[in-house]
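Tat pathway signal sequence domain protein, Holdemania filiformis DSM 12042. C-alpha cells?
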Amino acid sequence: MKKEISRRNFIKGTAALTAGAALMGLAGCAEEKTPAPQEAPKSKHVKVAVFSPTEGTKNAAAMLAAKFSDDVEFADLTNATSRTEEVTFAAEDLAIVAAPSYGGQIPMIEGLFTNLKGDNTPCVVVCAFGNRAAENVYANIASIVSKQGFVVVGAIGLVTPHVFASVAKAGHSRPNVDDNKIMAEFAGKIMDKLNSGSIEAITIEGMPEIDFAKEISAAPKEFKAENCIQCGACAANCSTGAIDPQTLEIDETKCINCMRCSFVCEYNARSYDTAVKRDFIEGKLSAKKSVEYFI
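C-alpha cells:
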C-alpha cells in the first residue's frame, strides 16, 4: 500500500537523508552549494546518545557531531528496550546527549539517560526544538548526566521541524546552512576549551527537575484497522512500551504521544491528526529562531 504524503513521511525522509550526509560532514551545504564552514580538527571519538522518536533530534545531533569528528558512534535510546543496558563512555571521548523539547522539558520518561555511564567524560547537551524554545531541557539533561560521570562543557539548542506543523512551516529545513555555520563555530570553541586542558562544568540556568505532572499538548491519535497487517513494528519500537505486542492496544497511562508509532508504521495504520494543532503552532512559531549555545 502506497503511503500518503504527510508531515510524518516528510520528516522521516529528510531526517534519513540529512543524517547520512551529516556523518560525511556535508549536511546543509550541498543544497545551496555553499562552502562548508570551517570545522574543528577531526581527531576525537564522539559518542552520541539520543532520544528521537521521529528522527528530527537524531538528524540535528548527527549534523553537530560531524562538526567535531569523522569518528562518530550513536547510542539511540528511543526504544524502551534500548535503555535497559548500560552505555559506557571513556574519559577521552566527547559525549553528545540530545533530546527534543516537550513543553520546555525533556520527554517525561522515568530513567531517561540514566543508563549512560561516563568517566569524567566531557559532554555537550543538545536540545532540539520546533522553532519554539529550549527552556529547561539543558538543565534537565545536565542534571542527569552530571550524576552519571559526565562533565557538561557546553550546551546548544538546534531548531528542527515541528511535528505539528506543515512541511513549509515552523522549523522547516532546519538545521540549515546558517545553522551549520553556528554549529561549526560552537564545535571549534568546545575543542579549543578541551585542548586547553580545561574540563570544567558550565553553569546552566533552568529547572533541573522534570515535571512529570505537566500536561503536554498532544494531537489526537488515529488508527486505521484496515491498513494494519499486525506486523508489531509499533509495539516493538514504542518509546515507553505502551503498546501491547499481542493486542497492539495503547496503554494511555504510559503513552507520551511522541508519535514514534506513526513514524515506524509502514502501512499508514497509525497516525496523528496534527491539523487540530497546526494553525496554533504555525501562528505562534512563525518567526525563525536562531541556534543558541552556551560554553
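The first strand starts at residue 46 and ends at 50.
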